[in-house]
């Protein structure tokens, strides 16, 4: 699971990162609304935790902008105001749930799990299908012509990220930050990514992934 925390209160943001790390959950942090919108719009996340009161852009603006861009990501609004009008405004902006500050981390975690389960149940996005290739997120499996294709962890994560962003050119930096996030150092990341793209092409065909010279890769 990948989570984006958009919260300008640095202590709270750091505490959330520590808490989710104990749950083996990867977390990115944005300290203002504009950076939060950029990260949420350009990377894949299961859940965005979005404070309403933010510098640059407030959470309501960020939420509306994400929905206008067609980003189908679960959003939990954090608010220090518990009036019904504020809550309704947040939900009408496109949020899936809300939580009033201060809150218990366990409750936030429960809300996150509930949203993820609901999305998996109500949406077909547990299966990503491109031509004859099907990726099953829930089973962590990939099939070609209904035949299971054996992939390493990194091959699978790279394949999933590219398929989730079909039609979008992904830079090596974006791929590195999303897929290779748990590995330390640069260790020739650019060449490593090229190697793994080559592995996927061997298993799914040369035309499965296109190279945009100077920009990155995409599945057309």
Q: What number of structural domains do the residues give? A: 2
* Class from helix and strand fractions: alpha/beta
CA distance, first residue to last residue = 26 Å
- Residue share in β-strands: 15-25%
Strand order of the largest sheet: 2-1-3-4-5
What is the helix fraction of residues, given as a range? 40-55%
Q: Tell me the CATH topology of the largest domain.
A: Rossmann fold
CATH class (first level) name of the largest domain: Alpha Beta
Name the CATH superfamily assignment of the largest domain.
Response regulator
Q: Give average pLDDT, whole number.
A: 87
N-to-C series of helices and strands: EHEHEHEHEHEEEEHHHEE
Radius of gyration: 18 Å
Largest sheet: 5 strands, parallel
User: Total helix count?
Assistant: 8
Low-pLDDT sequence parts: none
Please tally the β strands and state the result.
11
């Amino acid at each position: 699971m990948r989570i984006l925390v958009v919260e300008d209160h640095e202590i709270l943001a750091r505490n959330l990162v520590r808490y989710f790390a104990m749950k083996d959950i990867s977390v990115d942090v944005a300290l203002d609304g504009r950076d939060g919108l950029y990260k949420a719009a350009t990377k894949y996340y299961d859940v965005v935790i979005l404070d309403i009161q933010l510098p640059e852009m407030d959470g309501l603006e960020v939420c509306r902008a994400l929905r206008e861009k067609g980003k189908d990501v679960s959003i939990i609004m954090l608010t220090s105001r518990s009036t019904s009008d504020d809550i309704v405004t947040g939900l009408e902006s496109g949020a899936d749930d809300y939580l009033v500050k201060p809150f218990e981390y366990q409750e936030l975690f429960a809300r996150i799990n509930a949203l993820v389960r609901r999305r998996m149940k109500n949406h077909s996005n547990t299966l990503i299908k491109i031509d004859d290739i099907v990726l099953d997120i829930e089973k962590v499996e990939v099939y070609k012509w209904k035949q299971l294709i054996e992939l390493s962890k990194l091959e699978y994560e790279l394949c999933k990220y590219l398929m989730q962003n079909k039609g979008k050119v992904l830079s090596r930096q974006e791929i590195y930050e999303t897929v290779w996030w748990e590995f330390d150092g640069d260790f020739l990341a650019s060449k490593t990514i090229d190697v793994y793209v080559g592995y996927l092409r061997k298993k799914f065909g040369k035309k499965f992934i296109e190279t945009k010279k100077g920009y990155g890769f995409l599945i057309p």
